[in-house]
Structures are given as C-alpha cells and as structure tokens.
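**Fold tokens**
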Amino acid sequence: MIEEPVIFLIILISSIIVKNTLSKELLGLFYPFILRLSYIGVIVHEFCHYVMNLVVGIKPTRIEIKWRDPQSRARSPHGAVYSKPRSFLQAFLICLAPLYICTWLIFLSLNIMINSNFNPIFRIIAGFFCVSLFLGAAPSAPDFNNIPRAFRDDPSHSLYQILLICASGMFLWMILIFTRISFMLDVFYYLSIISIYLMLKFSLLGISRLTQRLHINNFKRTPKLKFKKFTRRYYKPKKPPKLR
C-alpha cells in the first residue's frame, strides 16, 4: 500500500514533465503522431473525470473533447467536464481520478505488451495505448485549482472530511495490526478506508440527529399544571348582529 502512492507520484511528475517538454521542434516528423496519441489520452482523461463525478453523486452538465484550439485553430488536444463539486472530498477524488485510473491501465497495458502469449498486434496496440495513457494521466491545472476552491467554499466541512479520512486510515491500520490481515491487491485497502469512512460518517450523523431530537423533545416538555376538573369553561359572549 505504501509503494502505490509513490508510483502515483512518479507517474504524475513524469507525465507533467513530458507534456511540458514535448514540442514540434523536438519531435519533428513524430509530432503529428504524438498529437494523436495525446488526443486518445485526453479522451481517457475526461472519461475518468466523468465517471468519478457519477461515482460521487454528481451529474456533469456536459463533456467536451476538442482537437483544435478554438481561438488559434492550432492542433491542441484538450477537453473539459463541466460539473460543480459540493465538497472538498468530491473535488479531490474528481481531480485525481485520471491519475489513479490511468496508472492501473498503464500497468495493464504493460503486462499485455511484455506478455508473449498475446498476439503481436495486440501487444503493439497496448504499447501505443500505454503511451497515450501516460500523456493523459496527470491532472491539469484547472483540475488542481478545484481542490482549494472547494476547501474555501466550506472550510469547516472540509476539515471535518479530512479528519474523517485520517481517522479511517488509523482504524484500518489498527484493525490490520490486531487481525494480521493482508490484502492481495492494494485496491482493497482503499475500499476498506472508504467503507470505514462511510461508517463513521453515518454514525456521527445518526448521533447528531438523535441528540438534536432529544433536545427538541426536552424543550417541548415544559411542566404545566392542569386543573380542568376544578375550573369552569371560559365564557366568550357572542357579538350582537349588526343592524342594517
């Protein structure tokens, strides 16, 4: 589990460096070919954003994938998914979705490429797909900007989510130490953290609603003395009809 975040960081830094250093002068005749591979990477990148939006409960308004820049009309593959995260955690997951999903797809493509049991054509396609995934793995600058923007919209709730994530990681660490359980795949660690996070979240929500309801009930229960048996009914005289 510790090695995987290091791999994510290496792919993130490498992808950013490669995308910023590739130029028409450097690549020469290979530049159009790399642009087309980058376009495939953009499609996968935006699809990862779109899927993660649906996973966290947000329906994007639209998705755009373009081959040319709308102003200069130069070849510049880019795209965007239009949505509005409602919390810090949603913005964080949506931002890093391409990095996480593309990293797994990169390793899958590498396994196909180096495995001699597959057809050579499939191995070549997997190699090109691996390059396009690497070019589209890193989140863009607007993706990263959504995280602090979501934090500023509601700092208290954002800190609450961060504390819950840290508490979920600590609970999982304690459970693994006492039970001596080890998962075969690292993805199960992340799924366990998500499960513990949801359990803590809904438990705290339940406790909060229960205490709020008890407080309201106690507030309504004001002591009142009732002497209906010993009092007579209040007499309210009727108004005389108006004379026309």
